[in-house]
């Protein structure tokens, strides 16, 4: 049996100010094409179908289109809800949609109830573990401690108990949305930390043939049988070095037989640039990034005038601009009082302007500061005299 493992579509999400619905539509087309051309027997989607609990209309329409195209293709699909999804909303009509071969698993109580598909070697049991918020599912799994590892272990106990009742040779696939120890996170995932601990060990999933993970946005292999597909599109500049892909997973009579990455379409490359503004504008080696979405960090000691407009003239798809002036480090060991000792109020104010802006006040600004301090001193003198 050949599986196509994907997750973290985040339908409806934007990349900075760029609407990603067109790129997400292109990915869905790629998914359908891959399933058809690579003769996929089942598609698994491991959560975060939507980017938020109440998705925009365009995202709902795209999801509806994806379901119809998968059903028309005749490829069974198993989906779970992630921490970004509203499990109840995503699961509406699940029993009816089951008849079309689209199996939505959003209820924690069904963790031990598999979707059974078959091939020439017998049955494959697909167990869907939607994102399990510990505080909300603690009672369902009858655990005393509301922690990620505790509730996932309890859910997997149900999986193993059900699997033990199946015919010998039944292979098993678990879909889960979780942060597994050893995985590399990015800036675009929502924190699921509870009590300071979010990660669970891969050993929680012992006893099954393949674990299709969702939540982390980088495609990665935790163990040979425990993998993240990652998101099909980049949703933060921290993913600039990612190779976005899905997994083609082959199962034979004995379990996992092979894994192959299939690259996803890239709407536009990402580039993270750092340097002075003049340096970025003049460097011929950066020509390859002129069509990329750009995050620029300027290191000029003084903030230059109109930096975004000037950057955009060369890099028209600049989306993010930050400043990190390269200056001699202050001696942080000195106390604040020691650093101010012997300095006048005007000198302190000038230093503050320089710290915030990267350069001290010019002559006109310095004159304004002098006038303000003189006025304050005069006012204080009048108050003292009136006492």
TrEMBL record:
Single biological process term from Gene Ontology: DNA recombination
Gene3D superfamilies: 3.60.21.10
Family statement drawn from the similarity comment of this UniProt entry: Belongs to the SbcD family.
Domain Calcineurin-like phosphoesterase: 1-218
Protein name from the UniProt record: Nuclease SbcCD subunit D
Protein source organism: Streptomyces pluripotens
The protein's assembly and partners: Heterodimer of SbcC and SbcD.
Signal sequence extent: none
Domain Nuclease SbcCD subunit D C-terminal positions: 267-355
Domain of life the protein comes from: Bacteria
Example GO molecular function: endonuclease activity
PANTHER family, per the entry: COMPONENT OF ATP-DEPENDENT DSDNA EXONUCLEASE (PTHR30337), NUCLEASE SBCCD SUBUNIT D (PTHR30337:SF0)
InterPro entries for the chain: Calcineurin-like_PHP, DNA_Repair-Maintenance_Comp, Metallo-depent_PP-like, Mre11_N, SbcD, SbcD_C
Function (record text): SbcCD cleaves DNA hairpin structures. These structures can inhibit DNA replication and are intermediates in certain DNA recombination reactions. The complex acts as a 3'->5' double strand exonuclease that can open hairpins. It also has a 5' single-strand endonuclease activity.
Protein keywords: DNA recombination, DNA replication, Endonuclease, Exonuclease, Hydrolase, Nuclease
């Amino acid at each position: 049996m050949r599986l196509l493992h994907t997750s973290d579509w985040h339908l409806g999400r934007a990349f900075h100010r760029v609407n990603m619905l067109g790129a997400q539509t292109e990915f869905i087309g790629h998914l359908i094409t891959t399933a058809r051309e690579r003769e996929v027997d089942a598609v698994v989607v491991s959560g975060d179908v939507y980017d938020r609990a109440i998705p925009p209309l365009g995202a709902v329409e795209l999801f509806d289109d994806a379901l119809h195209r998968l059903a028309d293709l005749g490829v069974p699909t198993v989906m779970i809800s992630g921490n970004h999804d509203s499990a109840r909303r995503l699961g509406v009509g699940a029993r009816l949609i089951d008849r079309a071969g689209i199996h939505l698993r959003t209820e924690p109580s069904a963790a031990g109830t598999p979707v059974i598909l078959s091939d020439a070697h017998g049955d494959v049991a697909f167990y869907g573990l939607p994102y399990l918020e510990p505080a909300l599912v603690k009672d369902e799994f009858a655990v005393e401690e509301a922690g990620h590892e505790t509730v996932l272990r309890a859910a997997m106990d149900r999986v193993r108990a059900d699997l033990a009742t199946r015919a010998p040779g039944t292979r098993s696939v678990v879909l889960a949305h979780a942060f597994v120890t050893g995985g590399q996170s990015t800036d675009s995932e929502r924190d699921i930390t509870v009590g300071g601990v979010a990660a669970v060990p891969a050993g929680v999933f012992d006893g099954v043939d393949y674990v299709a993970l969702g939540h982390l946005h980088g495609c990665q292999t935790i163990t040979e049988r425990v993998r993240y597909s990652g998101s099909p599109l980049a949703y933060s500049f921290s993913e600039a070095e990612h190779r976005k892909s899905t997994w083609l997973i082959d199962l034979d009579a004995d379990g996992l037989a092979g894994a192959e990455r299939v690259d996803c379409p890239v709407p536009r490359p990402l580039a993270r640039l750092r340097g002075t503004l003049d340096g970025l504008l003049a460097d011929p080696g950066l020509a390859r990034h002129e069509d990329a979405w750009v995050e620029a960090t300027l290191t000029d000691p003084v903030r230059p005038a109109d930096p975004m407009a000037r950057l955009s003239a060369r890099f028209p798809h600049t989306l993010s601009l930050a400043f990190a002036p390269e200056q001699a480090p202050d001696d942080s060991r000195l106390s604040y009082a020691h650093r101010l000792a012997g300095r006048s109020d005007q000198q302190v104010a000038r230093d503050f302007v320089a710290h915030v802006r990267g350069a001290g006040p010019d002559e006109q600004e310095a004159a304004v500061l002098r006038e303000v301090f003189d006025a304050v001193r005069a006012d204080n003198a009048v108050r003292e005299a009136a006492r």
